[in-house]
Amino acid sequence: MPTAGAPNSTATLDRFHSAVNSGDLGIISKAIDEFVAPDVLFHAPVPMGATGAEALKRVWEVLLRAFPDIHVAVEETITEGDKVVSRNTVTGTHRGEYQGLPPTGKTVTYDEIFIFRFTDGRIAEIRGVVDVLTQLRQLGAAPS
């Protein structure tokens, strides 16, 4: 059963995704500062050497450098209590170095699912599953 804060959490996540899809690191960083707790717990396949909101900013810095036209299409959201689940399709063109791979010019399309836990209207915890294998296969870095 949804709680009173659930619509606000969903709206916050929608605004966050809009910022991410701007392709502008400054806008994304401001959105992270606004919508994400500084000490957010970030559980995702992103070995960035940072924690909290800074780790999330580094992830977007790397992604935008590698895929400047990256786009996250939200396919489905489910809200339950203080959590919002977002199932997304991500697309982008590999135009910069990524995980040691020089730019290939190839387009990638892959899926991801994130669970966002909200506290006091901000994202306090993120758990993610990203189909990196499909992404790397499309870039020619993993066998099909």
What does this structure look like?
The chain is of the alpha+beta class. 33% of the residues lie in helices and 35% in strands. It has helices at 6-20, 25-35, 52-66, 132-138, and strands at residues 36-43, 71-80, 83-93, 107-119, 122-130. It has a five-stranded mixed sheet. Strand 2 and strand 3 (83-93) form a beta hairpin. The longest helix is centred in the N-terminal third of the chain and has 15 residues, at 6-20. The radius of gyration is 15 Å and the shape is globular. It starts with 5 loop residues before the first helix and ends in a 6-residue tail after the last helix. The model is unreliable at 1-5 (pLDDT under 50).
Structural class assignment: alpha+beta
Helix share bin? 25-40%
SSE order, as H and E? Answer: HHEHEEEEH
In percent, how much strand structure appears in the residues? 35-45%
Multimeric state: single chain
Mean pLDDT: 91
Major beta sheet, strand line-up: 1-5-4-3-2
Let me know the number of strands: 5
User: Are there runs of 5+ residues with pLDDT below 50, and where?
Assistant: 1-5
Coarse shape = globular
Please state the CA-atom Rg, rounded to the nearest Å: 15 Å
Question: Tally the helices: what do you get?
Answer: 4
Distance between the termini: 42 Å
Biggest sheet features: 5 strands, mixed
